[in-house]
Amino acid sequence: MTQQPPHPVPSSTARDDRLRVMVVDDDDAFRSFFLRVAGRAGWVALAVDSPDRALAALSSFVPHLIFLDLSFPDMDGLAVLSELAPRCADAAVTLTSSCDPEVLRSAHRVGGRLGVRMLTPLPKPVTMDDLTQALRAFESEGPALTPTAVREALDDGLINLVYQPKICLKSMAYRGVEALARWSANGTAIPPGQFVPVVERDESLSLQLLTHVVARAVSQASSWRGAGARCAVNMSALCLADERLPQRLTDTLRGTGLSPHDFVLELTETASLQNPDRVERILTGLRIRGFTVSLDDFGTGHSSLMHLQRMPVNEIKIDQTFVATLEDDPRSDQIVRLMVTLGQTLNATTVAEGIETEAQAEILRGMSCDEGQGYYFARPMDAEHLETWRGMWANKQPKDPPTAED
User: Fold this and answer.
1) pLDDT over 60 (residue 157)
2) 221, 252, 330, 339 - which has most CB atoms within 10 Å?
3) Mean pLDDT of 270-287
4) Which residues carry this modification: 4-aspartylphosphate (predicted)?
5) Rounded CA gap, 280 and 117, in Å?
6) How far apart are alpha carbons 192 and 55 in whole angstroms?
7) pLDDT digits (tens, 9 = 90+) for 52-84
């Protein structure tokens, strides 16, 4: 069942439970090569030569996996990803291209921010081993999860929290945590990269996960709470469609002994601004109640400054992609320095994520970045281990009390 248009598209039927894959590429030789390899691997494969044909084929062929070239005469791969995201929500995408590796990595990140499950890109030329390994890797992970599966996992208490500490870079004092959702089923961990994109495409599920995380963090507050310590939780942009969001979260905290001042809501900067007035209104409502609003992954989107202009944020979180190259790339150094200065100008706390070395921490401290998190300080851990870690961390620090500036 490996065919190319204009032949009939192989339909997705219940009688054939094999995995289905589509390749979208205008190179005749690559499509033929792809069909041979996929067929031998036991997949139902479809090869199309243009984005338009790929989108048309989705009415009768629902792939589990799509291999997508980035360059076409009339439409680039990013535009195709934007079209695929709402039409083929359960499919994973592997980008294939001979373009510059940095362009390929950037396109991969853009696809993820669109809510597409992005797999490791394949630079061209693609060998038989490359393609076979990519197909086998997907087989081992399995098809994309469904919203129903995630909702059932939440209802069954299978999604729990781990916490990554946040540190004041000036005093090295503990400043709180970021709560991260983790799903374990029958002893097997399901990576966030598989279930989070599913959540971020479903408004009601996004709200359910947010309230679940806040409620679970409240129940484990004794492990992370301390003088001035706050718990950061990730908030999908879809949550901003709910006008009652500030009240919902406030109600979740009522009677718990905690207040909005104990929480940071980390909003990815790719949040939709199709209704900027509503977004501004809801975020302002959250700020009025006492929540800190953080702009997560700052610097990776196409409209960072627009978000800062319209969103009442009081924290900026510097994306780890810039932190990772601080020691080697002068441009990263200058960009991060500008971000920190911008945060200071806006009276917003700056937080660097993904700190993995002492040198990175020292560079950021020298820039007067306020807080940091990453493997250099601690990996994410459960509530029980967090309490132990906090005691050990406190014993490592100077005994002089931190100043008010800390």
Assistant:
1) yes
2) 339
3) 80
4) 69
5) 29
6) 28
7) 999 999 989 989 999 999 988 888 888 888 888
Closest C-alpha among 203, 184, 166, 229 to residue 355: 166
> Distance between CA atoms of 52 and 282, rounded to whole angstroms?
38
The tokens of 29 are what? Answer: 């030789």
201 bridge partner residues = none
- Residues in CB range of 169: below 8 A, 6 or more apart: 352, 361, 364, 365, 369, 370, 371, 372
179: helix, strand or coil:
strand
> Where do the domains of the chain lie, and which CATH numbers do they carry?
20-141 (3.40.50.2300), 147-396 (3.20.20.450)
d(CA 339, CA 305): 11
Q: Annotate 125-155 with DSSP letters as a single string.
A: SPPHHHHHHHHHHHHHH-SPP-HHHHHHHHH
In this structure, are residues 158 and 183 in contact, taking their beta carbons and an 8 Å threshold? yes
Distance CA 248, CA 240 (A): 12
281-284: long-range contacts (C-beta < 8 A, 24 or more apart)? 281/243, 282/240, 282/242, 282/243, 282/245, 282/246, 283/240, 283/311, 283/312, 283/313, 284/312
Query: CA 178 to CA 234: how far, in whole Å?
Result: 8
> Does residue 12 surpass a pLDDT of 50?
no
Average pLDDT, integer, range 271-296: 86
Produce one character per residue of 300-317: b if its CB has 16 or more CB atoms within 10 Å, e if not. Answer: bbeebeebbeebebbbbb
**Res. 391: pLDDT tops 90:** yes
Q: Shortest CA distance to 196 belongs to which of 232, 144, 244?
A: 144
Between helix 203-219 and helix 147-155 the angle, nearest 10°, is: 20
H runs (alpha helix) in 185-262: 192-199, 203-219, 221-224, 245-253
Number of helices (H), then strands (E), belonging to the chain: the values are 16, 15
- State the alpha helices, DSSP H only, in 28-166: 28-40, 51-57, 77-87, 101-113, 128-141, 147-155
**SS3 state at 341:** helix
Residue 4 pLDDT: 47
Conformational region of residue 40, where left means phi above 0, alpha means psi within -120 to 50, and beta covers everything else: alpha
Which residues, in sequence order, are CB contacts of 232 under 8 Å at separation 6+? 166, 176, 177, 178, 179, 263, 264, 265, 266, 294
| CA–CA gap between residue 344 and residue 171 (Å, rounded) | 18
